[in-house]
Amino acid sequence: MLVVDDEAPARSELRYLLERDERIGVVHTAASGTDALRVLDAEAVDVIFTDISMPGLDGMELARILSRFAQRPAVVFVTAYDHHAVDAFAVDAVDYVMKPVRPERLAEAVRRAAAIVAGQRATEAESVPDETIPVELGGVTRFVNRADIRYVIAHGDYVRLHTRNGSHLVRASLASLAQRWAAAGFVRIHRSTLVAIPHVSEMRMDHGKCTVVIDGVELTVSRRHLRDLRASLLRPREAP
Description:
single chain; alpha/beta; Rossmann fold; CATH 2.40.50.1020; 2 domains; 15 strands; 32% strand; elongated
């Protein structure tokens, strides 16, 4: 996540509001469009919240530059003026938030940006060649496509592969599957659970406890793996 605004108070306030959102990890900041490009050169950023009216390279010009990126970050404009709205959507902005920023309005912008990022994740996962896993039941060998697997639960020396239509027990380690399937969008959320990020429909926080929902099933996210989950949804990076 990257916040771009030439006014330090506005930049700090937006960063504060974003960091209160449980879906977001570390938030980078930049004081200009030029500074933003420097951050993007050093960090992988999926979502940018930027002011429009800034000295030098303004927010609209920054968005036009970003449109030429091979992997373009989602752009949300945050501005005190409404006359840029048409131009904003002409450069495919995800949202257009008016100052002063209301927390509930910002949360909606984050939701929209997260949906865009999730769609990009799904597209990236689909570009990875699928894998076929042989499973045996009653002496009959069947084949399950990795793309059909929603989540995986460890059971000792075995794992249970959960699909939309059922589950299959196979001899494998969760650690090896997590490493092998990372490029296909699988992320470990617990020492015994691996999930396919494109199939995560909800992330819930309740009194410090985090869970994700896949096909109506609620799965616990451990504190140790919460940061990895956030990174997979919005790909935040450590602050410089």
